[in-house]
Amino acid sequence: MIDGDAVIHELVLPVPAGQVFGMFTDPRQLVRWIGISADLQPRPGGRFRFEVAPGQFCEGQYVVIEPPARLVFTWGWTDPSFGLAPGTSQVEVSFAPSGVDGQQTRLRLVHTGLAGDLGLLHEDGWSRFLARLAAVTACGEPAPYPGEQPAERLTALRGQRAGKDRA
What we know:
By secondary structure, the protein is of the alpha+beta class. The protein contains 4 helices and 8 strands. It has helices spanning 17-22, 27-30, 117-139, 150-166; strands at 2-3, 6-13, 37-40, 47-53, 56-66, 70-75, 89-98, 104-112. The protein has an 8-stranded antiparallel beta sheet with strand order 1-2-8-7-6-5-4-3. A hairpin with a 6-residue loop joins strand 3 (37-40) and strand 4. It is globular, with a radius of gyration of 16 Å.
């Protein structure tokens, strides 16, 4: 969901909060659902960088690390054509125990600082990648990796939106 300059997602995952938290802080776990390589330093001020598609990097820093309940990091793209420099938007993720036995996790992700088309691109991206996270936590295998470059995806999304506006 897009709300102003924010993208918000909530979902329940079938594993404990600590396991989901690790999917955002362990490079081997992160690339199971988002990205093809990662350089993570999960401490306040530490690097948060991953390659989402060949040559396309998201980069920022960890701001808050509160295992297993909360994580905040900055976000942006190394490619200046996106208009979102590294570290200029922020992602906050909360992980709350859920289910009868607390062995599930209610994940809430709020990505702020995304004006205009950046909200559109990141809403689409988070929807697709969180679906992969859900698949990994449910059965150990992710859904197929989106093959498009982020710039190609943004162009496609703009075209879809323009078509809806004309209809």
